[in-house]
Specification:
Structural class: alpha+beta
Helix content: 25-40%
Radius of gyration: 24 Å
Order of helices and strands: EEEEEHH
Largest sheet: 5 strands, antiparallel
Distance between the termini: 64 Å
Strand order of the largest sheet: 1-2-5-4-3
Strand content: 15-25%
């Protein structure tokens, strides 16, 4: 499971239906939280927390699952078959990756500018090569 900050937390899916599921071994969830959850044999789904308490939570998927999807999820092996801790380890500042922190728009602008510069250098080099070869 991942919260809005994309922090991963291991959870156990106790019960699943087409509209949602009950999770165990959760910590820090509150009603109306938005999460994404990896369903074994299916993939990631976004969901909203409906209720939470005593290490469990009920979530509602943002898109319903079909009967074949549910059967596949129930039949799939999990990545790790072991009891999970009741809560995730807290994040520390030392775990942060140092470096630039750009918004999506700024990253797009940087990538676009770099691509435009590469094309300009390539076109300029081709023009210079043609001029030096004496074609015009």
């Amino acid at each position: 499971m991942r919260d809005l900050d994309f922090v991963p937390t291991d959870v156990i899916i106790d019960d699943i239906s087409s509209d949602g599921c009950r999770l165990s071994a959760v910590h820090g969830l509150a009603p109306r939280d938005r999460i994404s959850i990896g369903l074994p044999g299916f993939g990631m789904m976004t969901a909203d927390v409906i209720w939470a308490g005593d290490g469990s939570a009920g979530i509602r998927f943002n898109a319903p699952l079909g009967p074949y999807d549910i059967a596949g999820i129930r039949a799939a092996d999990t990545v790790i078959a072991a009891p999970f801790p009741a809560c995730a380890a807290p994040r520390t500042e030392s775990a942060r990756v140092e470096g630039w922190s750009l918004s999506k728009r700024a990253r797009s602008l940087v990538i676009s500018a770099a691509a435009l510069a590469a094309w300009a250098l390539g076109a300029g080099g081709a023009w210079l090569g043609i001029r030096l070869a004496g074609f015009f």
